[in-house]
Write a structure and sequence with these properties.
With about 300 residues, the chain is mainly beta. About 5% of the residues lie in helices and about 40% in strands. The strands form 5 sheets. Strands 4-11-10-7-8 form a 5-stranded mixed sheet, with no helix packed on it. It has a 5-stranded mixed sheet with strand order 13-19-18-15-16, with no helix packed on it. Strands 3, 5, 6 and 9 form a 4-stranded antiparallel sheet that branches. The relative contact order is 0.13.
Length: about 300
């Protein structure tokens, strides 16, 4: 709609009758006269308001200085896995985590200090705990900026490598510190399984049109503990698939075997066929959680 002359009438503030007073308020370059049209007045009003609006990075923005993690450490920082308590193929690790936290000038009080442990090549933490600076064990002195806590977690026997202890702090305003990590070495001096005492026939007679059961027994031990053995097996080197592994068990299923006595067994069934009667070679091995294998024991059985 077109503007009429009444809409263009100037708007005057009673206190602005003296132009010099307005000049002092706005400055000479901004002086447009003692009276302003509604449009000019709106522009000036917005300009005045904008001077008080919170700007990004301005003094009205929330701001603060986060805590600073100066150093972290694990005690011990190198662990021989053979020395750790074990149960069901898992090892229990216990360390003392420690971090030096600095509250920088102008920063708020520290609210939390958290430590996490991540496995070698891992992404998600195995364990996260809160560290404390209250003088209660394992912390030594309250309020000295050194935060401590015990961390206990379990790992598989095969999980050697370099783990990472990482610490992050935050203050009561929610500002988060830098993250600082330190290495935790899990060292495994592995020893391979040992096979012995193979019990297997040299020859077996197959009845015409019938079959025969062939029990095989072998003893398997491991210097790192029986729980370190994950498989005892044999391969039939003269079969169509000489790489196939046939697992032997320590469950007492074979005649005369006792569960858990370190003697592994299996019963092989041989059935009569036109080509079955010949000599077969068998290779016995054991493998542990570290992937090391025992020496191979070879034995031949002739089917007659």
């Amino acid at each position: 709609m077109p503007l009429n002359s009444r809409q263009l009438m100037p708007v005057c503030h009673p206190g602005w009758a003296n132009p010099s007073r307005l000049t002092r308020f706005l400055g000479p370059s901004s002086f447009l006269g003692a009276c302003f049209s509604p449009m000019v007045a709106s522009v000036i009003l917005l300009a005045l308001i904008s001077g008080c609006t919170k700007q990004s990075g301005g003094v009205l923005d929330p701001s603060g200085i986060p805590p600073f993690v100066e150093a972290t450490a694990a005690f011990p920082d190198s662990i021989k896995m053979k020395s750790l308590p074990q149960a069901n193929g898992s090892l229990t690790v216990t360390i003392r985590a420690q971090a030096k936290i600095i509250r920088q000038a102008g920063s708020a009080a520290i609210a939390t200090v958290n430590a996490s442990v991540t496995a070698s090549g891992g992404i998600d933490p195995i364990l996260t705990v809160a560290l404390h600076d209250d003088g209660s064990l394992p912390d030594s002195v309250a309020g000295d900026g050194i935060y401590s806590a015990l961390m206990q977690f379990t790992i598989p026997r095969s999980a050697s490598g370099i783990y990472t202890l990482k610490v992050v702090a935050s203050d009561i305003q929610g500002f988060v510190s830098n993250a600082v990590g330190s290495p935790l070495f899990m060292v495994r001096d592995n020893q391979a399984p040992v096979l012995s005492n193979l019990v297997a026939p040299d020859a077996v007679v197959i009845p015409a049109g019938g079959s025969a059961n062939i029990p095989l027994y072998i003893r398997a031990t491991d210097p790192d503990g029986q729980a370190d053995i994950i498989q005892v097996y044999f391969r039939s080197l003269d079969s169509s698939d000489p790489a196939q592994k046939f697992t032997m068990n320590n469950d007492g299923s074979a005649p005369g075997s006792v569960p858990g006595d370190s003697t592994y067994s299996i019963i092989v069934k041989a059935s009569d066929s036109p080509t079955v009667r010949k000599t077969y070679r068998f290779a016995f091995q054991a493998i542990d959680t570290f992937g090391d294998t025992s020496a191979t024991i070879l034995h031949s059985i002739t089917l007659q």
